[in-house]
Amino acid sequence: MDPTPIIEVRDLTHTYSAGTPFEHTAIEHINLAFRPGELVGIIGHTGSGKSTLIQHLNGLLKPTSGKVLFQGEDIWKDKKFTHSIRGRVGLVFQYPEYQLFEETCWKDIAFGPKNQGVTGDELDARVRRAAGFVGISEDLLEKSPFDLSGGQKRRVAIAGVIAMEPDVLILDEPTAGLDAAGRDSILENIKAYQQAQNAAVIMVSHSMEEVADLCSRLVVMNHGAVAMDDTPAGVFTRADELTEMGLSVPQVTSVFARLRAMGVNVPPDVYTVRYAVARLLERKEGRSC
Amino acid sequence: MLKDITLGQYFPGKTVVHRLDPRTKLLLLIVYIVALFLAKSWYSYALVLAFLTGVTLLGKIPFKAMTKGLKPMLIFIIFTALLNLFYTKGGTLLVDWWIFEIWSDGVRTAFFMVLRIMMLICGTFLLTYTTSPIALTDALERLLSPLKKIHVPVHELAMMMSIALRFIPTLIEETDKIISAQKARGADFETGSIIRRAKALIPILVPLFVSAFRRADELATAMECRCYHGGDGRTRLKVLRYAGIDLLAFLVGAALLAGVIVLRRFGL
What we know:
Number of domains of chain B: 2
Number of domains of chain A: 2
Largest sheet of chain A: 6 strands, mixed
CATH architecture of the largest domain in chain A: 3-Layer(aba) Sandwich
Number of strands of chain B: 2
Number of helices of chain B: 11
Number of strands of chain A: 10
Structural class of chain A: alpha/beta
Helix content of chain B: 55-70%
Strand content of chain B: under 5%
Largest interface: A-B, 23 and 17 residues
CATH superfamily of the largest domain in chain A: P-loop containing nucleotide triphosphate hydrolases
Distance between the termini of chain A: 39 Å
Oligomer: heterodimer
Helix content of chain A: 40-55%
Order of helices and strands of chain A: EEEHEEHEHHHEHEHEEHHHH
CATH class of the largest domain in chain A: Alpha Beta
């Protein structure tokens, strides 16, 4: 893993409506660094500051105090740089399919790279590459995005951000409201992009199973601060603290914790079904020998 | 930024003005406007202004909220003042320079006109500051209900109005979200020629319209699922009833109107 962070926040604080009676501090003194090739999950209950944090990373919100650094440079150093950051740090909002507007999928996916100044063959290549990552076939590109199914619309919307080929891809609940099959395939698409580009991917999610399965690192937010920043195994062994924050652990983790409480000798760091099956099979074979 | 357009928004409260029946307030506003347009002299304007100040104090509406409401109308007010100042002739000639002539009557008319517009706006804001939109639509529906006899769809109109009011904050929030999302894709709304900026609005307007239609559709389905079938035989959760203070308010309103008419009669 590349040790130099691609994006970093230092002592970041954001206060909404400062100086009015509605003043509200959403995040306070946050320090985080993300490296290329990392797949980070951000979890935390509603109102813990996740959305505020991610909107700072591409310069949509300006910090009240503190800094956001992209490759070591302050993204607010001048207006042009802030604008160019939006192409380097791609942000996919919640329910991105509601932001589609063009006549054809091709045009909609091309909107982002076009704003960056990409034209001609390069533009077409980018659109087709992005569509490939999210599994949108060539014949759909000429269709109106409004004729597609919900899952397909979301893919097109994600492709619209991927087409900018950002070094950091941030997704706010990319699987909300999708069925199991749609969820799995979108997560695979995200992973494929991360591996192909060696991008840093940051994903906000409410599903513990999802982040446990996909991410190499988890950031837990609570009351506008970072409560934990660890590997999934490290985070999910602190189940009691998570419950106190109104979060949970993956179902398989709670099953195994219960088994341990009953006196069965199973490992404590189980957080994916795949891992649990492997460990149980190991035990079974060990016994039969 | 967009949240600032919610001008004249209801300030919840429990003062006498808040507790008045919305129908009373609506009718009083009409009386107030009539009185304002009948006022011709310093005395009658003072009387109407006293009424306005009194109600503002009773309703505990901050003075700042009133002046904030006047701000967007500033250009209109200045324009009216200038027109009246230069185009009214009569009295003594005060200024005569090049093509400009200012007469004493012009100054007087301009002053009263500005005062009238400002008081008109303040009075209307007083109603919306102290009455929730729902109560206001209810009042409107009740006051207009005699028109049902000539087949005016009063209930439907009132329902449309409450739905429109209900969705203003929702749509503002939605617009903010869409703007952020398109900005994240590198859209630029701040630089370029007017045509470029107008074109930059397309990525905001299309999704906004699509979602407004989708919401309308969903709402219609939800209403039908709950057997909504228009106003016939529909009862209300909150039935409007006039109380003692409403009678008092009507008396004050009548006194105001009578005062202005009497003053006008005596040419004061």
